[in-house]
């Protein structure tokens, strides 16, 4: 077994400015688009987490030259469908659902079967959601009845531009279809339930023909395929999902202030700021700039003792899908009963996060009412933990680990968190920043 993390009754106050690692969704997309561009793309401040390192390894297996010098990355693209296909290629996506699903969209012309595998957690996740549209587009699959990894994909020389309704609100599914559309002749039309919009922003930045008509619940995306695009330069902004852990740490501590620089503040990513401000936080977003079609800014937050419950509007769910666990901690400390609904997707992440989130709250003495897709959290503004809390068997879900660390730092108690290294799949500087803010922990 790997190392465990020990946290023991911490008190701390800080006033600091910090930088957070590059955005995971954007880093993966820079690599994928770089692999299809013509020429040498330069990506600065790329996230060097395990998900990205696995993505790089997989693209190299497909014949893409990629060089890394610290956080500076060069991708040497050979144009659309410029992969070097061979027999018996296996791609190991590790823990990355985003890379595993998106890369399938770029393999729709592969003349040979390509095998896709992942770690234990990824091997439990659903791939039917991308298999179905890709079959319509022309790809074929060998996959178990459960539609999970491992699977094999083979493409076709005849790619269909399809009309597809994406009803889950999954950016991964939408993006997979959009990437496959790059290789289709004619026009692909996607009616997509709202989800993060980075792939659309890359299309615009790279001048790949796209039109987007925004409706209240759906976006209608039209793409013209087979248009070559050139290499590009990109500096990856900080990951708002990683920032959320430190925003909540500050909020739930006493006498703390934090500034976080150059954070991606794409509307489809910062639903959690809206929710926290509705709960009584006073998070401020300043110095807004637009770069590469994405907004970035500095975020300011202070400790706040009078937090109140939220009845979280489900229309915001896809804008804070990766932040529910950390928001649950705020609900645990808020006055009143908070309610979160329509959360089926949350149990389909790196772990069943809705179930495990509720279990952690129960361990620290917070009452919850849990259903298959909803949770009510009975907040306690005086919450203090006086006992030993063991966090184990959580499928090495990076966000469960980081949420537990924050809980240990703000609610006290003696915490033992197993599989201590798993935060590295999305946020390798996480523990260093915790240290920089003045906290102590043991790793053994
Ligand atoms: C992601 C989309 C989200 C999110 C994941 C990253 C992306 O997943 O949970 O961490 O980069 O497109 P879904 O699209 O499946 O909701």
Description:
The protein is of the alpha/beta class and about 450 residues long. About 50% of the residues are buried. The mean pLDDT is about 100. It contains twelve helices and 24 strands. The protein has two domains: about 5-20 and about 235-444, UDP-n-acetylglucosamine1-carboxyvinyl-transferase, Chain; about 25-235, Alpha-beta prism (UDP-n-acetylglucosamine1-carboxyvinyl-transferase, Chain). A four-stranded mixed sheet has the order 22-23-1-24, covered by helices on one side. Strands 2-15-17-16 form a four-stranded mixed sheet. Strands 4-5-3-14 form a four-stranded mixed sheet, with helices on one face. About 30% of the residues lie in helices and about 25% in strands. Shikimate-3-phosphate binds near residues 175, 195 and 322. The site of shikimate-3-phosphate has 11 residues, from helix 5.
């Amino acid at each position: 077994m790997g190392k465990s993390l020990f946290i023991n009754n911490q008190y701390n106050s800080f006033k600091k400015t910090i930088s957070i690692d590059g955005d995971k969704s954007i880093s993966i997309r820079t690599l994928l688009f770089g692999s299809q561009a013509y020429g040498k793309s330069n990506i600065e401040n790329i996230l060097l987490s395990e998900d990205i390192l696995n993505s790089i390894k997989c693209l190299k297996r497909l014949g893409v030259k990629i060089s890394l010098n610290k956080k500076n990355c060069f991708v040497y693209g050979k144009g659309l469908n410029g992969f070097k296909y061979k027999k018996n290629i296996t791609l190991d996506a590790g823990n990355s659902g985003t890379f595993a699903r998106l890369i399938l969209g770029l393999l729709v012309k592969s003349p040979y079967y390509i095998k896709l595998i992942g770690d234990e957690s990824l091997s439990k996740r659903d791939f039917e959601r991308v298999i179905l549209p890709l079959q319509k587009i022309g790809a074929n699959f060998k996959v178990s009845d459960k539609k999970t990894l491992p699977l094999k994909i083979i493409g076709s020389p005849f790619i269909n531009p399809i009309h597809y309704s994406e009803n889950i609100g999954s950016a991964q599914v939408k993006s997979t279809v959009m990437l496959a559309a790059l290789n289709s002749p004619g026009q692909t039309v996607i009616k997509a339930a709202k989800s993060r919009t980075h792939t659309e922003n890359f299309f615009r930045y790279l001048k790949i023909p796209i039109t987007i008509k925004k409706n209240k619940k759906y976006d209608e995306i039209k793409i013209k395929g087979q248009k070559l695009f050139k290499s590009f330069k990109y500096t990856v902004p900080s990951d708002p999902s990683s920032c959320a852990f430190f925003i909540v740490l500050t909020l739930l501590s006493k006498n703390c202030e934090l500034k976080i620089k150059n954070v991606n503040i794409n509307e489809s990513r910062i639903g959690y700021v809206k929710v926290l401000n509705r709960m009584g936080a006073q998070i401020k977003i300043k110095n807004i700039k637009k770069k590469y079609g994405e907004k970035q800014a500095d975020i300011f937050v202070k400790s706040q003792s009078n937090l109140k419950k939220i009845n979280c509007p489900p229309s915001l769910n896809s804008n804070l899908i990766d932040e529910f666990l950390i928001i649950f901690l705020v609900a645990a400390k808020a006055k009143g009963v908070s309610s979160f609904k329509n959360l089926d997707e949350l149990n389909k992440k790196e772990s069943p996060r809705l179930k495990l989130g509720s279990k952690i709250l129960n361990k620290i003495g917070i009452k919850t009412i849990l259903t298959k897709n909803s949770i009510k959290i009975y907040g306690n503004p005086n919450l203090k933990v006086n006992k030993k809390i063991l966090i184990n068997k959580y499928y090495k879900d990076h966000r469960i680990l980081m949420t537990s660390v924050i809980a240990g730092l703000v609610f006290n108690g003696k915490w033992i968190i197993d599989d201590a290294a798993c935060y590295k799949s999305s946020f390798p500087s996480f523990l260093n920043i915790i240290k920089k803010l003045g906290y102590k922990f043991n790793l053994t």
